[in-house]
Write a structure and sequence with these properties.
Order of helices and strands: HHHHHHHHHHH
Number of strands: 0
Shape: flat
Number of helices: 11
Oligomer: single chain
Largest sheet: none
Radius of gyration: 21 Å
Length: 257
């Protein structure tokens, strides 16, 4: 089961960390270098997360998964007008297909961790380091750590993309959105990341009443702008969607743990 969640983490790293805005733009406009760079990033992410499972089957998987990922992205961009980003439903379908392929490939990949690689990393730790790691994670199983990392990754990184795609809908777009748009969008992205991280963590800890402080702090910063009805609706949709994602992720983690 650990391998499956490592494959999911590799997908998160390739799709949301290593894929820059320029790579995404190149893919949307049909430029070959965008697909090549994204496939290379996916390959590197897979090697990083799964290299201690190295085997002929794993090496084949390092080739098959980036190829399948690239094919899905190409088909997705072919279904949209050139240069036009996919909407929220297409994004969710795209992620579901990637997840399904990872699940199918994992089921047919029978491989075990490579002992000499595990021993190599174990030898890098001093006795004090090994003792510290054993103390920190003695009550937490590796699958639980990986699932936690995957859910945090999807809520924080995938949530940023989903919230942005919903807010980019024509019915929610602000009339004066072009003014200072790039700076506002970047600031909103970081605020959203912090907001979801706090709400997810508070939900996981069972501190549900403390979530109200996140809303209060965010509303104070936007108090004057909320007098504008268009902005208030835009703000409310983004905040509620972001909160729903974080709260759902926290509840799922509480159920799993």
């Amino acid at each position: 089961m650990e391998l499956f969640w490592l494959l999911v983490l590799a997908h998160l790293g390739a799709d949301f960390l290593l894929q820059t805005a320029q790579i995404a733009a190149d893919k949307r406009t049909g430029r070959r270098q965008g697909y090549i760079k994204h496939a290379a990033g996916h390959f590197l992410s897979l090697v990083f997360f799964t290299h201690y499972y190295i085997s002929p089957a794993m090496i084949l998987l390092w080739v098959v998964l980036p190829a399948a990922h690239t094919l899905i992205d190409w088909l997705k961009n072919r279904l949209n007008p050139p240069g036009h980003p996919a909407g929220a439903p297409v994004f969710l379908l795209d992620q579901a297909l990637h997840f399904l392929i990872i699940f199918c490939v994992w089921q047919w990949t029978a491989t075990a961790p490579c002992e000499w690689i595990i021993n190599f990393y174990s030898n890098l730790l001093s006795p004090a380091g090994s003792e510290l790691c054993g103390t920190l994670f003695k009550d937490t199983a590796l699958p639980t750590l990986l699932i936690t990392a995957a859910i945090y990754g999807y809520v924080l990184l995938g949530g940023s993309v989903l919230v942005r795609k919903v807010l980019d809908l024509e019915t929610l777009r602000l009339p004066d959105q072009q003014r200072n748009y790039d700076n506002t969008r970047l600031a909103g992205r970081y605020i959203g990341l912090l907001e979801r991280a706090l709400i997810l963590t508070l939900t996981l800890a069972g501190a549900f009443t403390a979530i109200a402080f996140v809303f209060t702090a965010k509303s104070i910063a936007r108090y004057r702008e909320l007098e504008n009805r268009d902005f208030a609706e835009y703000y409310l949709v983004g905040t509620l969607l972001s909160t729903l994602l974080a709260f759902s992720g926290g509840l799922l983690l509480r159920f799993i743990r």
